[in-house]
Amino acid sequence: MSIPISRAPDAGWTDPECPVARTLDLVGDRWSLLVIRDAMDGARSFTEFQRRTGIARNILTDRLRKLTAHGLLARLTAASGRRQEYVLTDAGRDLFPVVVSLRQWGQRHGFAPGEAHSTLIDRHGATVPDLVPTGTDGAVLDVDTTRVQKP
Hints:
Elements: H1 19-27, H2 30-40, H3 46-53, H4 57-69, E1 73-77, E2 84-88, H5 90-93, H6 96-109
Antiparallel strand pairs: 1-2
């Protein structure tokens, strides 16, 4: 489901030329990413998001509204016709590698050695391998082998 993200020039971007800053303006608060995470894990209803995250109703209402307005979630009528459901749009689904990278960073740096944590597995039950950016030549990229080119 492709819904355009708001790109109005007067949107108050933190750093209009930086894709990282613009992304953080859209989803950089804790609750937005947790809502996106839970939508990726099958949550659809307001009640489900609230139960999974423990977020206050007013904050959840605000985040769902913003994520919908920015085209990351779409609001649909449930099959029962009585409730609203939230589903990821293509733009929301495109955040999957971002969430996986955050998860993998957290596994490496957010837990004490041996401390229990959830694990992301693929459809075969295998742990998802670490995401590693590579260049066009297949070489691993890092902060020492890349640079930002500004307009």
